[in-house]
Amino acid sequence: MDINRHKFHGNYKLSGYEPKKIIVNNTEYKHSIVVSNNTLVTNWEPQQAKQITSNDIESLITLDPEIIIIGTGNKHHFIDEAILEVAFNQNIPVEMMSSSKACMLYTILIQEQKHVVAAIMP
Asked: Comparing C-alpha atoms, which of 98, 92, 117, 100 is closest to residue 12?
């Protein structure tokens, strides 16, 4: 799915997603990544939603997001709210969805000049 349509605000552009493949700035990744306006982490440890811990969420919070988006792979998976509580306690919303939808939402919010942190799983 190509998600390039509008002017982009940021250094890292999620330019596509296919099952098992995430494309950032025309580079393909086949493992989980974290991307924000000015940060790209190419070695985010969780590879499945069930592997995410509160420490992983805390690592996303250090990037000072207005919102956290978690792409859970080809399908939408839920994450235990207790794990997300660390973000909720700091009034940071967390949205979980399939990775293709997460890439689209990231792109839309970046275009609106929001500080977004997206953790995308293949």
From this structure: 117
